[in-house]
Amino acid sequence: MNCNSVTRFRSGTGRRSRFGHLGTALLGLFFLQNVCAQSLDFWNPADPRMHWTSEINPAVIPYQETKFSVGLKIRHLGFVPDNPFDLRENRVNISIPFFLPGRIGLGFDMRYSTAGINKEIAASLLLSREVVNNFSVGLKLGIENRSFNKDGFNLVDADDPVLAGNLATNSPNFGLGLFWRAQNLSLGFGMNHINRADIGVGSEALLPREMIAAIGYRIGNIMPTLVLHDDGSRKRVGFFLSFTPEHIGSFRIGHESGMPFKLEATFSLRKDHQLSYTIDLPTADTRAVSLGSHEFVYDRVFSGDIGTPELVLPNPRLEVIRETVTREMPSDIELEDLASNPDLIRLFLSSVGLRRNLMVITAGALSPNEANEDRLQRFRTYAGTIAEQLNNTPDLELILRADSSSMYDASMIKEYLHHISLLDRSRIHVLKLTSSGLPNLKGFEPGRSTVRRKRPELSSQNLQIQLQVAGKNRRARRWRLRIRDASQKVVRKYDGKGVLPATLVWDWKNQESKLVAPGIYTLDFRVQGQSGRIKAAQPKQVEVAYIKRSVKLQFKDGT
Q: Residue 13: left (phi > 0), alpha (psi -120 to 50), or beta?
């Protein structure tokens, strides 16, 4: 029940009113007003996770989970025998962020309270939208029905227009809210009864505007909040302290001047199910004589917040190969003669070949009349001298040149070296010669030494960054990836909104589209869920290594 349910009523009976009867009625209203003042529900408009906050500040809906909440609140009195008012309140709240087109959030709140002589039903439609980054606005469109039962009074003046019958009024209730969040700082503001609804008879029964503002700052899982509240008759200062550990629930303590302490504990029963218990504890500063209240709330989360992300890097190392190729030719060699040399193969001049140490031999008989014994002797020579060089130079590879008639011989040599000399097959290559034209000898100049620095070659063109989260919910308000160097300077950044992508691709370049320098780079990924909570992945590191290679091609006369 809202404290503003009863203000001042104007009686039109004048002299005909019986002062004794009216005094009894006003005494009852006075008691009810005092009870309301102690039991006033005050919220924290800067905390989207708190129950019923969207009713006073609908702007928080974009930062909430999609959920359904139902609650029962029981108030206790200390000055009324047998507790005849039997104060109870039932409440239902639905929050659906980003439900309507244009990323408009939708909410619904309904409250029913009874106090013996008074009953109240209020329903509100809540709309919200994030207009700019981290700033949202909300609108409340509500209708309230209040009624007083004359049977709750001992004496009733039948001629009094206020108390002669069951007083029931309907009035609209308009409100608005503002919410802003920047990293760990949160600001919230809510205003209720902007239209100053008339709940009684005449202009003397107007509800005052209610305003509440709060500022909170999150430190890890703890969020202290300062609250300023103006209920239209009195200005109050309060505070909240929230503790929200992961996967457990939340705990809150709050207090407002002249009001009881509010203690709340929320526990996760199962996945997507929560139960909360709240108790109000009066203090010496609490006005009147309330003995506090108890509230139970059940939450059913339909679309939970996104889980903690994890970065998976299939290739966390980049090798940047920077090669310098030196070509030397004596002046007495013609390029045409060199290109027609049968021992010059394309692999010598390719980018693959230049990164290898290669030994080339020609397969096939040494003479047209080679006997089996001559062949075995040739194989023994390969097994001795050539295998010895391969064993002494671990990165040396052998190329067996062959044509159609000598392919069998090349295969036999390869198997002989593998079984007799125990060489790895991957280091022996059989290359079949084809008549595909002459090799490209661009860069070779007879009688000169030319140096060519090749463009850097990358061991992988891109870094595939996989973004994994537990569960199927990948909806996020926003996410960001920062890639920092050893000095923590950001060299590349990625930002986005909405559904979290499965993979991000880094082309190893900085913000200026230049290849990054060698070193260790740290990937920092954070995601902000629908509830506004920011979750960070475990940082990952990648290495960028520059490898310098020098290749020298030297041709001599007669070779």
A: alpha
CATH class of 3-303: mainly beta
Cβ pair 257, 237 in contact under 8 A: yes
CA 342 to chain centroid:
63
174: left (phi over 0), alpha (psi -120 to 50) or beta: beta
Which tokens sit at 196? 């100053």
pTM confidence score: 0.55
Is there a common fold for 3-303 and 310-316+457-549?
no
Looking at CATH, the fold of the domain delimited by 341-437 is given as Rossmann fold (3.40.50)
3-state helix, strand, coil in the chain (%, to 5): 15, 45, 35
Find residue 347's DSSP bridge partners. none
Contact 341, 558 (CB under 8 A): no
CB 4 within 8 A of CB 176: no
Tokens in use for 408? 């069998």
**Where along the chain do its domains lie?**
3-303, 310-316+457-549, 341-437
CA–CA separation, 272 vs 317, rounded Å? 40
Joined tokens for residue 135 = 């700033």
Q: How long a stretch of residues is the chain? A: 559
Domain 310-316+457-549 fold = Immunoglobulin-like (2.60.40)
What pLDDT tens digit does each residue of the chain (559 aa) get? 333 333 333 333 333 333 333 333 343 443 344 334 333 466 789 998 888 999 999 999 988 888 899 999 887 654 445 554 467 889 999 998 877 777 788 999 999 988 767 788 999 999 998 888 778 999 999 998 887 766 666 665 666 555 555 567 788 889 999 999 877 899 999 999 888 766 554 444 567 788 999 999 988 789 999 999 988 778 889 999 999 886 678 899 998 887 888 899 998 887 778 899 998 887 777 654 455 788 999 999 886 677 789 999 988 999 888 888 787 777 777 666 666 665 566 555 555 555 567 787 888 887 778 888 888 888 888 888 888 888 888 878 888 888 888 888 888 888 888 888 888 888 888 877 665 555 566 667 777 777 877 788 888 889 999 998 876 667 787 899 999 999 999 999 999 987 888 899 999 999 999 999 999 999 999 998 766 668 889 999 999 999 887 777 666 655 4
Is 96:64 a contact under the CB 8 Å cutoff?
Answer: no
Nearest-Å Rg of the Cα atoms of the chain is 42
Taking the C-alpha atoms of residue 169 and residue 158, their distance in angstroms, rounded to an integer, is: 19
d(CA 102, CA 178): 18
Q: Position of tokens 């034209």?
A: 437
